[in-house]
Amino acid sequence: MISIKVHNSNDSTLMTTRSPQDKASGSTSTVRVISRPKATRIMIANGKGGVGKTTVTTNLLSHLSLLGPVGLFDYDTQGSASFWLSLRGEREPVITRFSTKAHDRGQVTRSWMTHQVAQKARYVVTDTPAGLSSPLLDKLLIDTDIVLIPVSPSQIDIHATAAFVKSLLLNPQFRRRPVKLGVVMNRIRKNTLSFHKLEKFLSTLDIPVVSQVRDTQFYVKAAEAGLGVNELSQKSPADQKSWVQMIRWIRAYESTVPKAADRSSTQKKLRDGTEQLLGVPFSDDEPVEDQGQKKG
Ligand SMILES: Nc1ncnc2c1ncn2[C@@H]1O[C@H](COP(=O)(O)OP(=O)(O)OP(=O)(O)O)[C@@H](O)[C@H]1O
Ligand SMILES: [Mg+2]
């Protein structure tokens, strides 16, 4: 009879087998089975420009870097997140930038690439461009665990975000394998009319609001220095709370098996809520690609 012993370690499983012959000779055979990638892959996306995608990417990275090794995929040709990383001092926790070039050129699949990355990072955050096209979204959704959607409180952003969420829910890759969705309310100023309008819109979606991020110059200052707001010498507890909440939500997700979103009811609520808010019909037949708007 062959006896098998299994030992789990962080990134692999060791199986030690012992056959009768092994027993006689006093030897064992060991096989290492690499288990599935352990990195949690988070994509920051909204077809609308200027809503805070890069700000959420960089601050999430700087906060997550306290939990373990982290990596950045920058899919925006403007390269703002990569530029931020180039400004980062050596005293701060290291954030690795993973090149997206081989993937862009079709030389490797995203699965292969993320598998390589997973060996080096506990969390991987992907920054995406404004006007994210359906084919790119389709490609990026492969091997993504969480999509965080930043939205800021303006009528135009709300409209564009509604269209983006719709395009996400209709995306073929998302329909095949729904990922966890969350909204980040960015640049908020409480007790303003625009804040309440945004809250009302978001309450119509079946997507949780993960965190609220204040509108403050600390974010501008931190961006200029390659830092997160947590790494500034002067920081505010209110800002820390936003990121702690976001990370708690991510950690809670990690401890569960993600449930497939009920897309049809989400879509209906989204449509009804948007119509109610904007006072105009929001057609399901609108071409979703045309809805993403560039900043400026
Ligand atoms: N919470 C905030 N408080 C103050 N300023 C902010 C905040 N979030 C973002 N900003 C500022 O708003 C501008 C746009 O933000 P950011 O670059 O993160 O948006 P984006 O969605 O990545 O834009 P793009 O679509 O062009 O890539 C930047 O100047 C940024 O510093
Ligand atoms: Mg950006």
Tell me what the structure shows.
With 296 residues, the protein is of the alpha/beta class. The protein has 2 domains: 3-34, no CATH class; 40-291, 3-Layer(aba) Sandwich (Rossmann fold), CATH 3.40.50. It is built from 12 helices and 10 strands. The longest helix is centred in the last third of the chain and has 18 residues, at 237-254. The chain binds adenosine-5'-triphosphate (ATP) and magnesium ion. The site of adenosine-5'-triphosphate has 19 residues, from helix 2, strand 9 and helix 10.
Q: Total helix count?
A: 12
- Shape, per Cα inertia axes: globular
Structural class designation: alpha/beta
Quick check: average pLDDT? 80
Distance between the termini: 72 Å
Based on CA atoms alone, the radius of gyration comes out at 22 Å
Number of structural domains:
2
- Considering the protein shown, what is the CATH homologous superfamily of the largest domain? P-loop containing nucleotide triphosphate hydrolases
Tell me about the largest β-sheet: 7 strands, parallel
Order of helices and strands: EEHEEHEHEHHEHEHHEHEHHH
CATH topology of the largest domain: Rossmann fold
The level of helicity is 40-55%
Write out the strand line-up for the largest beta sheet, numbering strands in chain order. 6-5-7-4-8-9-10
Domain CobQ/CobB/MinD/ParA nucleotide binding: 42-226
Region (Disordered): 1-29, 260-296
Protein name: CobQ/CobB/MinD/ParA nucleotide binding domain-containing protein
Pfam family, one: CbiA
